[in-house]
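Q: Give me the 3D complex with flavin-adenine dinucleotide.
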Amino acid sequence: MTTQVLVVGAGPTGAVLALELAHHDVPCLVVERAVAPPRHPGVDRLTGHAMGVLRRLGPSSLVRRYGTGPAAPEDVEWRTRLDDEPVLVSPQPAGTGADADHRIPAAELTRRLRDELRAHPLIDLREGWTFTGLRVEPDGAVATVLDGQAGVRHSVAARYLVGCDGAQSTVRRCLEVPMESLGRPARHCSVFFRSADPRLPVANGAPVLVVVGGVTSVARGDGDSWVAHLPVAPEEPVGTDPVAMLRARLGAGLDVPEILGVAQWDDALAVAAAYRRGPVFLAGEAAHRFHPAGEHADTSLADAVDLGWKLAAAINGWGGPGLLASYESERRPSALIDREMVARALETRRRFGRLSAAGAAREVLAGVLRQEAHRPDAGALAGYAAVPGRRVRPGGHAPDARLDGGEALEDRFGRELTLVDLTGERAGAPLAAEATRRGIPVTHLPVADESVRIHWDRPLALVRPDRRVAWCADAVPGDWDAVLDLVSGKTT
Ligand SMILES: Cc1cc2nc3c(=O)[nH]c(=O)nc-3n(C[C@H](O)[C@H](O)[C@H](O)COP(=O)(O)OP(=O)(O)OC[C@H]3O[C@@H](n4cnc5c(N)ncnc54)[C@H](O)[C@@H]3O)c2cc1C
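A: Here is the predicted complex, encoded as structure tokens.
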């Protein structure tokens, strides 16, 4: 078999990568070893940014239809015991409008994404197919894949191969790429349960995240179902009696009528030493693992989108080598920053547990939290989300803006590069024409709306397919060819 791109794994990362490639008319083969979606754990809350990614590719409507709806603002309550009043409550905004945070169980999201892949004419999804081996060649990769149901082994020659095969990535092991961990991985257990115990707070119907000592419990937004993440000591047995473990940790006789499941984790904070070897790439959890406290798929989905349009640009002939090289140089630092932020937030949580166990007064605990990152996932997604009011800058997300009629500016962007032109005299038109002459697809978008000018402080900006600013200027550049060489990756 041959394919332009072989995607290994149809979790959220692999599915979004396949959809991004198809969005740019590039066909791919996706192999997924499972024949059914995972039960849990996994994606539950999708941030507004992740929803924006899905909206551009189509499936955000599925999240709306099959999820549990827009996520309400999620207060974080810090308690010493479940019975006690919170020491501190920190609110978390949930975003508003089209790209508000949403909730959808992982299994449902995976099922719906796989339906999209199956229905897409450019995507060939093979379920029950397991990637087992890899040979890297100068002009591509040859993978060995086992069709488990037919018991047949296939050899797949691909121009590019992407490992989206999760935390235990076989692709990563074949490449012999080590994971670089921050600290030692610790054992961790997640207990999924139903409880209407009134001590589990549901403020005004809005779900909350409760930190009691070292345990973080998160309401899953569908009434009375919760997940509690418990650190487990090396010698401690796991899973024999999750209710007893939960009660012991929460310091109260919690009423737990139903356990939905128990999962064990090594909560490593780890990033792959490299994201690429020749034609083979790593993306999503195959490239970085964060403690469940990170609890967001944004970093993984951003990998998929970043790599997807760059591979498509290379395959469609306008992307140079610098574009593919920039996948690692852009996405790996982002994972490293996320790792630091999650580590900092986890340390706050541990310190809170230690201080409460030592009997620190409530005022002391609240004071310590106020000085630290008292949101458990504070700071994650470094630099990726579009922040209202953010200015136009190279590498940054295109600022959110609405046209005077209310339409989102980004809905006017082209599929490939877009030259946003606020000069008022269509000064960008010859630039876009010159790009097209060179085979670089640029949509020229003149904008006169005052509502956009408020946020877009540069009259000319070239926006990438992933809504990041590739280049911007106050005037028509003297050497447009040099700009095009840079943004298409002809030069680095
Ligand atoms: C406890 C917990 C809670 C979380 N909660 C949230 C949340 O609320 N919100 C959120 O956004 N994120 C959450 N996350 C993070 C989220 O689950 C991950 O970011 C996301 O699953 C990463 O997707 P992925 O596609 O990279 O990997 P995975 O989801 O692990 O998918 C990998 C896929 O590859 C397949 N595969 C593996 N090996 C092979 C092979 N050899 N051949 C073929 N296929 C293979 C697997 O079957 C799987 O389908 C949570 C994570 C944890 C651990």
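A quick observation: Residues 2-71+98-182+269-340 form a domain with the FAD/NAD(P)-binding domain fold (CATH 3.50.50.60).
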